[in-house]
Write a structure and sequence with these properties.
The complex is a heterodimer of chains A (90) and B (546). Chain A has 90 residues and is mainly α. Chain A has helices spanning 14-31, 48-86. Chain A has two helices and no strands. Chain B is built from 22 helices and two strands. In chain B, helix 6 (113-121) runs antiparallel to helix 7, helix 9 packs antiparallel against helix 17 (335-373) and helix 17 (335-373) packs across helix 18. The chains are: A mainly alpha (90), B mainly alpha (546). At the A-B interface, helix 1 and helix 2 of A face helix 5, helix 10, helix 11, helix 13 and helix 14 of B.
C-alpha cells in the first residue's frame, strides 16, 4: 500500500499544475456570463451567445482529454518511481 | 386529430425490441454470485469503457434532454441554454473526485454514496440523511422520464379520451419497464443504452441538418425566435423571453449551471453508473470522453428555437411546451422517421428510469433496510428487498406525475437538484479530507434542505401569483442578485457545517470511526480485492467489448 511506503513524492508537480489549469479554464470562461452575453458576431446565422458556448463544448472536451493523458502518464511514472525507490509495490 | 399509424408502428417495433433486450440482459455477462446485490444492483462491477460510456450517457442524458431543455428554450429563450455550460463544466469537476470515489467503493465494497458516508464518518445518521435525500431527489427525476414518454404518446394520439384510457399506454410502458428491471437489474439498461444512444445520435444529427434546411437556415430560425421572444406575454405583462441573458439574469444563469454540475454526481443513479465500472482507468477515461454527449445536448437545445420558427403551438392558449419537440418532429419529419425520433425519446426515458429506480432501491436496501431494520440481512435478502423497492419507487414516481403541474417538468428536477446538492459537502470533501464533524455535516445538511425547500416554495410560476414551486431561482441574501436556490442553500449548509465543526472539535465531541485508509482512495481493481468478498474482487468476467 502506498500509504505505508516510506517514499513521499511531491504533491504539486508542473504536470499537475497544467492539468489544474486545463480543468479550471472552462469554469472561468463559462461562469463569467457577461463576457459572452452578446448577439454578435453571428456564425452561419447563430448568435454569438450560442455558438460560443457550443465551441466551448469542443474546447473543454479537448482540454479534459489532454488533462487525462498528462495525468495518467504522470501517474504511471510515479508508480514506477515508487516501486523503484521504495522497493515496494504501490 | 388522426393517429399516425406509420410512426406508431415504428415506435412500437423499437419498444418491442428493447423489451426483448431488457429480459435477455439477465443472461448477459452473468458472473459470480447471482444472489449478491453487486450483481443485480451494479451489474457485477464489470463494465468496461464502452459499456460504461453508453450506460453513463444513457443514464445522464435523459428524456429531460430531449423534451424539457428545448421546451424551456422554446418558452423563455436564452435562460434555458444554461444546460450547456452545466454539462461542460460537469466533466472537469467530476474528473477530480470520481476516480477516488470509485476506488474507495471498490476497496470497501460500497454500493451507494450513503455507504461511503457511513464508512467515512462512522455515522449511520449521515448515511441515512444522504440516502433519504437521494431517494427523495430521484423520485421527481423518474417522474420526469414519465413526462417525456407521455409527451410522445400525446403527440402520437394514442390512448382513449377517459382519464384512465389516456394514461393506459403510459401504465403499460411502465409495467414492462418495471418487469425487466426487476428480473435483469442494471444489465438491462446497460444493454438497452446501446440502442437508445444510437437512436439519439442519429435523430439529433438528422434534426440539426434537415430541419434548418426546411425552415430556411439558422439565420431565419433565430430571426423568428427573436421576434417571438420580444412579444409581450399577456399573462405576465413582460416579454416572453430573451435571446441573451440580460444583466439581471446572469447570476441565475451561472449559478444554475454551477449548481447543476455539482449536483450531477450526487444523484444516486450517476454514482451507480460509476461504481459499475470495472477499474479506475475506465472511470477516468470515460470522464474524458463524456463531453461528446454535451455537444449533442447543445445542438438539441436549439430545437427549441426551431419549434418557435416552425410555428409549433402558435396561438394555442395555455400551450404545453413539453410538446414542442415531439410536435416539431411530427411536423417536419416523414412519418417513419418521426417514429424513429419518438422511439429515441421513449427509450431515452426508459433507460434512466430503470437505472434511477435501481439506484434508489440500492440506497433503501443498504442504508435503511440493512443499517436500521435488519443489520444481519444476507446478500440474497438484500437483493430481494432491492428488487421489490425498485417497483415501489416507480409507483411513487407515477404519483409525482399525476400530482404535480407538468408545464415545466424541468422544475421538478431542479427541486430534486436543490436537495441532492446538500449532500455535496459530506461526500466530496469526504473523498479528500476528513475534517468535518459528522454532527456538523448533519445539521448543515438539514439547514440547506430546509432553506432550499422554503425558498422554492415561495417561488410563484410566471403569471400565476400565489402559486408555489414555480421555479428554482430566488434572491440571494447579501448579494442582492437572483440566483439558483440550490447554490445559496449549499453555501448556508457549508457555513453551518464549518462553524459547528470548529465548535464540536473544541468541545471534543466523539468523531466516530473512519474505516477507510488513504490507500483506499487510490486503489485499483488489480491490486485490492473487495473486502470480505474475494470472489468479487478480480475480474472473473471477461469483457465482450474491447
Amino acid at each position: 500500500m502506498s500509504q505505508s511506503s516510506p517514499v513521499k513524492l511531491p504533491l504539486v508537480t508542473p504536470v499537475r499544475v497544467v492539468c489544474a489549469v486545463l480543468l479550471v479554464a472552462p469554469f472561468v470562461a463559462l461562469l463569467w456570463v457577461n463576457s459572452y452575453a452578446t448577439l454578435t458576431p453571428a456564425f452561419i446565422g447563430i448568435p454569438f451567445f450560442y455558438w460560443y458556448q457550443l465551441l466551448w463544448v469542443v474546447l473543454s472536451a479537448l482540454m479534459t482529454g489532454l488533462a487525462y493523458v498528462l495525468f495518467t502518464r504522470e501517474e504511471r511514472q510515479r508508480k514506477a518511481q515508487r516501486v523503484a525507490r521504495g522497493g515496494e509495490q504501490a | 386529430m388522426k393517429t399516425d399509424w406509420t410512426a406508431l408502428t415504428v415506435f412500437i417495433l423499437f419498444f418491442a425490441l428493447v423489451t426483448v433486450l431488457g429480459f435477455m440482459a439477465a443472461r448477459w455477462r452473468r458472473g459470480g454470485d447471482a444472489e449478491h446485490l453487486d450483481e443485480w444492483g451494479l451489474g457485477g462491477r464489470s463494465f468496461g469503457t464502452v459499456i460504461s460510456w453508453f450506460l453513463l450517457g444513457g443514464d445522464l442524458y435523459t428524456a429531460y434532454t430531449f423534451i424539457a431543455v428545448p421546451a424551456l428554450i422554446y418558452g423563455v429563450g436564452a435562460q434555458g441554454f444554461y444546460a450547456v455550460p452545466y454539462t461542460i463544466i460537469a466533466w472537469p469537476l467530476v474528473f477530480l473526485f470520481l476516480p477516488r470515489l470509485w476506488s474507495v467503493a471498490r476497496s470497501k465494497g460500497y454500493v451507494t454514496l450513503a455507504d461511503f458516508a457511513r464508512g467515512r464518518y462512522g455515522s449511520k445518521s449521515v448515511a441515512v440523511a444522504v440516502a433519504l435525500t437521494g431517494i427523495l431527489a430521484t423520485m421527481p427525476y423518474i417522474a420526469l422520464q414519465l413526462v417525456g414518454i407521455q409527451a410522445v404518446l400525446d403527440t402520437l394520439h394514442v390512448g382513449g379520451s377517459s382519464s384512465f384510457g389516456k394514461d393506459l399506454p403510459l401504465l403499460i410502458a411502465f409495467a414492462v419497464l418495471a418487469a425487466y428491471t426487476y428480473s435483469s437489474g442494471l444489465r438491462a439498461p446497460a444493454l438497452i443504452a446501446f440502442v437508445k444512444d444510437t437512436l439519439v445520435y442519429v435523430v439529433v444529427i438528422v434534426a440539426i441538418i434537415y430541419i434548418p434546411i426546411r425552415l430556411g437556415g439558422y439565420g431565419h430560425i433565430f430571426h423568428d425566435a427573436a421576434a417571438a421572444m420580444a412579444k409581450t406575454n399577456p399573462a405576465t405583462g413582460k416579454p416572453r423571453g430573451a435571446m441573451i441573458p440580460g444583466a439581471q439574469a446572469q447570476w441565475a444563469y451561472a449559478t444554475l449551471a454551477l449548481g447543476s454540475a455539482m449536483a450531477l454526481f450526487m444523484y444516486p443513479h450517476s454514482a451507480t453508473g460509476v461504481m459499475a465500472a470495472k477499474n479506475r482507468l475506465t472511470v477516468r477515461r470515460n470522464l474524458a470522453i463524456m463531453p461528446a454527449y454535451s455537444l449533442m445536448l447543445g445542438l438539441l437545445s436549439l430545437l427549441g428555437f426551431m419549434a418557435v420558427s416552425a410555428g409549433v403551438g402558435k396561438g394555442v392558449k395555455g400551450y404545453n411546451s413539453q410538446l414542442a419537440v415531439p410536435q416539431l418532429f411530427e411536423q417536419m419529419f416523414p412519418s417513419w422517421f418521426a417514429g424513429v425520433a419518438f422511439a429515441a425519446i421513449g427509450i431515452g426515458a426508459l433507460v434512466p428510469a430503470a437505472i434511477m429506480s435501481i439506484a434508489a432501491a440500492n440506497l433503501f436496501t443498504r442504508n435503511i433496510y440493512k443499517d436500521l431494520i435488519k443489520p444481519d440481512a444476507t446478500p440474497a435478502q438484500e437483493t430481494k428487498v432491492a428488487k421489490l423497492v425498485s417497483l415501489v419507487v416507480k409507483l411513487g414516481a407515477l404519483g409525482f406525475v399525476l400530482g404535480i403541474d407538468k408545464q415545466f417538468s424541468i422544475n421538478l428536477q431542479l427541486l430534486g437538484g436543490i436537495w441532492i446538492l446538500q449532500t455535496f459537502p459530506a461526500i466530496v470533501t469526504g473523498l479528500f479530507v476528513r475534517w468535518f464533524h459528522r454532527w456538523a455535516l448533519l445539521v448543515g445538511w438539514a439547514a440547506g434542505m430546509a432553506y432550499g425547500t422554503y425558498e422554492a416554495y415561495g417561488v410563484a410560476a410566471p403569471g400565476k401569483p400565489g402559486s408555489h414551486f414555480g421555479g428554482s431561482s430566488a434572491n440571494i441574501p447579501a448579494i442582492g442578485q437572483i440566483g439558483y436556490i440550490g447554490v445559496t442553500a449549499l453555501v448556508l449548509n457549508i457555513v453551518v457545517a464549518v462553524v459547528l465543526t470548529l465548535v464540536l472539535k473544541a468541545l471534543k465531541a466523539p468523531e466516530g470511526v473512519d474505516e477507510t485508509t488513504a490507500a483506499d482512495y487510490t486503489a485499483d481493481a488489480d491490486e485490492t480485492p473487495v473486502s470480505g468478498d474475494p470472489e468479487h474482487g478480480s475480474d472473473v468476467i471477461a469483457p465482450v467489448t474491447t
